[in-house]
Amino acid sequence: MKTKLFLALCLVMIIVSACSNNNDEPANRVDPKDVKAKSASFPASAYDSWVFVNLENGDTAIRKDVNEWEYHQLIVENGKYKRNADGSLAYEVTKTVKAGTPNEPKTWHLAFHVYDVRTNGGEAMITKETMLDKVKLTDLTSGTYEADKDIFIVVDMAGMQKNLMGYSKGQANLVLGKWLTSVGMPPKRTLSDKVFVVKFKDGSYALLKFNDYLDDTGKQKMIKFDYKLIKKNA
């Protein structure tokens, strides 16, 4: 009888422990409402570079894209672009450039390529809120997060008139990329009014509210956002 009781107690302890680990312990986390918001503003990168951002101290660093590059020549048949079975434009790879030595800063949270965004091994989601101070502690663990994905990123547009473009075999977070949508040519851009959340590997979170994609003159591309960096309690 004592043996059965002991085994039952052990089972309960295991279940409780598992539930605690899967809950991402919101009770042990700083409340977003108690974190002071900060602001970030910097020029958008050139097409062959990234701007790395340290949300801890606000530092930014520009680095060249050192991923492998591919040059894609669009295929034209009978005066029209050839398309694949899935509807995508068909192309042939005319040149590749080998990846270079990694050059990322020692500490960074987000990186921006023009208006593309990637995380330092994090995941992102969009909330229903439009103000940083409206995001609750429970919101951090109640949504569905998505990690960065492998994509082709435009890095060389010199041959665009000849249907030749250079692409980096890089990564970006497609959820964070929704902070700014673009339609048509010339592009008509729309800024999202939602708050984004990024979950990092160390258990910290960042709330992001993007404010603008141009400078005050409306001519230079900029990245402007308010944010809160929410650290995990020790």
Automatic annotation (TrEMBL):
Highest classification ranks of the organism: Bacteria, Pseudomonadati, Bacteroidota, Bacteroidia, Bacteroidales
Record flagged with keyword Iron: no
Record has Ribosomal protein as a keyword: no
Organism expressing this protein natively: Hoylesella oralis ATCC 33269
Protein's name in the database: HmuY protein
Superkingdom: Bacteria
Keywords: Signal
Pfam families the UniProt entry points to: HmuY
Signal peptide: 1-20
